[in-house]
Amino acid sequence: MIGVLIIAHGNFGDSLIGCMTHVLGKRPESISSLQVAGTDSPRDLMPAAQRMIDALDDGEGVLIITDIFGATPSNLASKLLVPGRIEAVAGGNVPMLVRAMTYRTKGMDTLLKRVVAGGCEGVFHMEADPITGPCVAKSSANEGAPVMNKRH
Length: 152
Prior knowledge:
The chain has 5 helices and 6 strands, in the order βαβαβαβααββ. It is an alpha/beta fold. It is globular.
């Protein structure tokens, strides 16, 4: 099973794990988070991150999920990458993490595709009709097609 390491600012990684645990009903195995403070440098965090990867990797590899591309967590993740073995995705959110838990036994290529799709497909613009209330959610992932209709 592919391990998952969330490298994110503050306690965002722990919060993602908490939300995902709530959605799934239990905390899955082989998932951890590394908190990054605004004053941390990727070089100083490398040893701890590498120890966490080593602990999570049972031979299938590790997926690193970060919060913001270009920030310290993703810069740290980029220094840990080993193609096909240690991969990373930025823009972490709960739908992405749920997909990670669902597909991490299917191999790294499938996992990466499903995690990125889950992250994108889980973002919606919820519109409200002034009379009937919320009625349509549109996602750029499905090109604005309505995916939720309120029943009257």
